[in-house]
Amino acid sequence: NADIALYQVKKTGRNNIQFFSQEMNRIVQKRLKIATELQDALDQNQFFLHYQPIVDYAQSRAIGVEALVRWKHRNKTRHPDEFIPVAEEMGLIVPLGRWVLQSALQQMRIWIDQGFLLNRLAVNVAVKQIHSAGFVDFLEYLLKENRIDPALLELEITERTLMFQDHHTLETLSRIRDLGVSISVDDFGTGYSSLNYIRNFPVNTLKIDRSFLTGLFNNHYDQAIVLAILAMAKSLSLDVVAEGVEQEEQDRFLRNNGCYLAQGYYYGHPVSPEKVQPLFDRIAQNPPHKIP
Ligand code: C2E
Ligand code: MG
Ligand code: MG
Ligand code: MG
Question: Diameter of the chain by CA atoms?
Answer without folding.
Answer: 84
